[in-house]
Amino acid sequence: MSRKGTLSIFILLFFLNISTLSSQTVQKEKHSLAVVLKIIETRYNISFSYADATIQDKKVVIPKENLTLEEVLDFLKNKVKLDFELLNNRFVAIKALKTQATFHRTQRLDEVIITNYLTTGITKLNDGVITIKPETFGILPGLIEPDVLQTIQSLPGVLSIDETVSNINIRGGSHDQNLLLWDGIKMYQSGHFFGLISAFNPYTTKQVNVSKNGTPAKYGDGISSIIDMQLPNEIDNTFKAGGGFNLINADVFAKIPLTHNTELQISTRRSVTDLVTTPTYDLYKKRVFQDSDLTNFNQNDNAIDKNESFYFYDITAKFLYDITEKDKIRLQFLNANNKLNYEEQANINDRNEALNSKLSQQNLALGFSYTRDWNSKLSTTAHAYVTNYDLDATNFDIINNQRLIQENEVYDGSAKLDINYKHNSQLKLNGGYQFIEVGISNLEDVNNPVFRSFIRDVVRSHSVYAEGAFLSNNGKTNLKFGSRINHFPKFDMIVYEPRLSFSQRFINSFRFELLGELKSQTTSQIIDLQNDFLGIENRRWVLSNNNIDVITINNKNIQPVPILKSKQASVGIHYNKNKLLISAEGYIKKVDGITTRSQGFQNQYQFINSVGSYQIKGFDFLVNKQFNNVVSTWLGYTYSKNDYTFPDLNNGNPFPNNADIRHVLALSGVYTYNDVKLALGLNWHSGKPTTLPDVNDDPSDNLITYAAPNSSNLDDYLRADCSATYAFDISDSSRAVVGASIWNIFNQKNIINTYYTLDTDNMINKVENQSLGITPNVSIRVNF
Question: Is-cis flag, bond preceding 449, omega within 30?
Fold first, then answer.
């Protein structure tokens, strides 16, 4: 079937799923809260938990029927001054509001301007931040579980060229330019199954804040974006647990009150791929290992038998201790791990040889924080963490009698003091100090011929920051302005980073938004050789040395790795009325200090070390229409032009970035009725830039002569996805959810990367990497 025919069929199916319900009138008379709660329980198929004394003498009008559950709970909270906490999709706990000493610290000045952004559980704030709450997350096409890093790829300006969560491109930046924070701790590993699944359990994540521009001054690093994942931070003395499995992994989690002032949150997840072989695993395996040492065989490899075993797991824990109402201690722990082993057996010179190659990827993290509420206006938080990332590979080549050991290790330690002062309901001040020490080592050891290289670098930084936030009485004007000052003693350098976020509502339904920032970053990922680390995780972390040219120390050439610096500005107009959102945002971003080794070139620049920059100019457009909280549809489009400039390459002329995707289009719809959720979506984007061999290539020179860099493009990318979930009660205190999804419904053969090699006869071979084909998945979950 042609792509045009596929698109026509998809659009027809999409619009056949769009329906509306008639609106209902609103009852103005006040009723007892108990009566209203019964009505809401029936309307939304939920259950409230409360003490009778808590709701005694409370009266309120019946909320409108066209409100979402979140909006209803916010309405009740404001009217009856009680706390309504949605524990999961089924249960809501009602409690008295906390005392002012505790409550003031969690109060936000940010005004929510768009709720149910795309689907339930996604909200846009007036400072440009997108907030995702997995607990109340609805459904997205192709997803049956709220995978954090898959979910953000539905946002305008966010794309993964190779469909992984370990290569997310936000406004043209590379994945290492995203700052991933897990409960305040920096993460260096983002994916399981080498990028196909997020490494962070969504069922223990309370909230995710995504910032593409206008980042608060308290955040350093992450010149493309901040992805801040936060775990529940308040003790509510409510037990909560759940577990489930799909065709890739199984998980369990629990939130356990230990005493009235202590709580333990734990979770664990493990793949089932080494225990049970499923169709989904086979498809994932084919996608991940298609261009690695597990599948790339030499001509003599037909005598080799290869058997692999693979699994992943993650473990998280958080301990909460409220010493007093004003003093709180939090401890966090995370361990995310991927392990791959494969055995090679061959008959060499009439001898049986068996060697075991392996790859291990692990991120360990430990954090501690102490929060003190000094009074109703002032609070401080002292936070410290240590995170360790280790990528370790041993690769045996039986034919050539060679053993290669590679290791990339990161130690990151930080201490931070954060101060919040709320002068009044309109003015809030934030400031603090942060110390960071990062050490990164890279090891390469070969036995034949004998070669060993070990490089370790350490960079320390001292940062101070301050920011003021102003919100007008009527909520129409929001202004945040601040700055971060970073000092790097090793380079005797000071970097200033101003930040700006301004929004103004006008004509009631319109909002103007202006965002800007300057940022810097000392860590980045590079690729030395495409087959490093068995060709699966070939990117390694390195530290900036602030050099722009190659220097020689002790007869060793030190490649330049400057400090990355970015400048970004954006202007947007948003219209939001009657559940219709129209959003348009233009932006420009310039990043200096990138190296060719960090960009993954597979053309004439693959082995060249040069320093340059990229600049992207783009435009994000979104239309999102909701119909009576049953149907949500959206159309998103992004146009951008992203160019490199390397003074030493291409005669200094700009040429397209490897992530220069000019056009991106997403068309999706979500249908929710009672316990049934359906989602259908289409994703299309123009082809990735590529470099073709020159038509005048000389086959006798043992080299590939290329055309102009990135002067061609792969074929357009097209993928349609669908998903469905159904929830039902098992008992009065437990609820189950079953789900099914299909990724790439029409099994489109999308080429996501192409490069060229020479064979033994100096003939050019074309290598193509394909995306996932049609990939089904099912899941079953039970929550208590």
Answer: yes
